[in-house]
Amino acid sequence: MLSFGKFFLSFFAKIFAMSLKIPLKTALRTTSAHLKKLSQMGITTIQDLLEYFPRNIESTEITSQFLSIQLGVKNTISGKLCDFRVEKTPRGKKIGKAVLILDDGAEIEAVWFQIPYMLKNIKDEARVYLVGKISRDFGKIQISNPEVHLHRDVHVGRLRAIYSESPPITSKWLREKIAGLLPLAKDFAEILPAEILAEYNFPRKFEAIRSIHAPKSVEDWNLAKKRLSFEEIFEIQVRVLREKLIRNQTSRNKYPAKLDPEAVKADLKTLPFELTLAQKKVLFQILKDFEKDRPAHRLVQGDVGSGKTVVAFLAAAAQIRAGNQVVILAPTAILAQQHFKKAVEFFAGISSSPPDKGELEGVSVKQNPAEIRVELLIGATTAKNKKLIKRDLADGQIQVLIGTHAVLTEDTIFKNLGLAIIDEQHRFGVAQRAILAKNNSHVVAMTATPIPRTLALTIYGNQDLSVIDELPPGRKQVITKIVATPKEKNLLHLFIRDQIEKSRQIFWVCPLVDESDKIEAKSVLQEYEKISREIFPDKRVEFLHGKLKPREKTAIMERFKNKEFDILVSTSVIEVGVDIPDATVMVIENAERFGLAQLHQFRGRIGRNDMQSYCFLICGKPDDKNKTRLKALEQYHQGQKLAEIDLQLRGMGEIYGTKQAGMPDFKVADLSDLQMLQDTRHWALKILKEDINLAKYPALKKKVESGEVYF
């Protein structure tokens, strides 16, 4: 039985350990507007706020001497503020003006175009600290829109943190609130093994948290950032590699399928085209997976139009011949219906049993089209049909089921699910994908989202990786051009008119659905009106966006595919899976607002035939033409290359947005640091080979087992 003293210590140890989980609404004195914005940013507890790391730091070393001032850059100056007044500009706008007298007697004019609240009650000749850019204006030395501080604190006289802001959450607000919570950094668990801390001379977790928010030197900040970055990547590496090692040790292949070269040859003969070498290589890898003693767990990456779907269908045929069922998941109803139509056509020519040797000698293979049953299950499927499909699925009468999230319900039961094919896997949640994993079936995920190989090995290290890195023969590279000036836009309109007269079709993508006062970008409804009434009044124009009902979207895409209209004005809803063979032009408004990966996805909607296709990137402002990202799209056509450029230019979060794209939400990690990726992978493998259960590292084990696996 515990003594009172030991009980007391144990009790308070638990209380202190929970301190990081205290809600901010309890811990902070602030407004409801601030709490609401923090919640929208995913920051609700003390731990969340302390792990909201700054993006940079800046020096606010104070000077009160004129000769120490640097023109053209931000300075922190101290002196007496005199003669503060409010003046009106010729246009009637109020501005604040004052004179700051430095300690050496020099005078600097201060101007505020938005008057800080504290200036309204400031006493004349009060000592202040101003932070702002100093310039020479018509002979006067002037500081414009400076911050005003009355004391040396977390904002002035030291290195200070600069955070990503989202009004009303500012760097100033964050510095003040985080400074009061930094003592609680001691409660962070240390998950990095002692040998790693020693190897790289890393500070402990609580020291790194303090140093990244309130650094004593640039060196301290850089080391803290490197240490926290290492931890983030290391944790992911341990998580995914451990999941893979455990699966390899414990899972058994319940749905083996022996590679039958003759059957594969028969399948290939039914195709109206020849597979590329890359397609054949990936198909062989998947078919060999089916023979192993553990379930397949493979990610197939390939650009839009590289032929991932036909490889998936061919792999499915092998599982069906082994007597197993196949499910193909698509993120949207439009894509699911598209896969369904192709699957019905494909499996009508495929036999569910291995062919006789004699059958391979003829021109065609004798098969029974009725042997393989393909069904579609989406949200729009009627309740009656859903019930029938699920009944026949459980009885094993359906060999191939194609669907959306509607498949991932508890009452969708397979008799013997041998293969799950997940198209654009990052659009399905981990919990949703886990429903399929319960069947211990083979899993082949496909993605057209360009991911640098090093990043793919880090995030999806628990899967085997295959890449289809060539397009089918006859496909021409899409010619990409930046459009920035009125003259270039007029030429574009003439070119589009010519393409329509040649019976070609046009995609016209806009960033917004409706016009916005806050965001300076083109909207679908606004551009639809302009295009249909002013630019091409004699052409057939329709619009499409995510707010439409699924049936409406499907009907519009079907009409577009049937060439019932010429131009489709759309949001990014057409990014994935839409196949319009006669579309040869992609126009993207405000192209500078999209990442390279997404622009490349848009471009992949065209060029899906032997006709020359064109992608035009319209800039919101003429200066945007010089952006490196847009120029890269003109120069490069491989998705992985563009993703690597985007990673270097914008960083992980901005490319993949990371919640939206199913990527881990990194807080500080620099995934362009290849050496760090290699080091973290090396240490993860080393530790797991010695102790796969992480018994020696309880804090690491708890952290790893509480997080998602990006499967």
Name the descriptors.
711 residues; alpha/beta; OB fold (Dihydrolipoamide Acetyltransferase, E2P); Rossmann fold; seven-stranded parallel β-sheet; six-stranded parallel β-sheet; 24 helices; 21 strands; globular
Structure description:
The protein is an alpha/beta fold and 711 residues long. The protein contains 24 helices and 21 strands. Among the domains are: 17-55 and 171-185, no CATH class; 61-157, OB fold (Dihydrolipoamide Acetyltransferase, E2P); 261-290 and 307-447, 3-Layer(aba) Sandwich (Rossmann fold), CATH 3.40.50; 479-636, Rossmann fold. The strands form 4 sheets. The protein has a 7-stranded parallel β-sheet with strand order 11-12-10-13-14-9-15, with helices on both faces. The chain has a 6-stranded parallel β-sheet with strand order 16-21-20-17-19-18, sandwiched between helices. Strands 3-4-5-7-6 form a 5-stranded mixed β-barrel. Helix 8 packs across helix 23. The longest helix has 33 residues, at 218-250. Residues 6-16, 357-370 and 653-662 have low confidence and may be disordered.
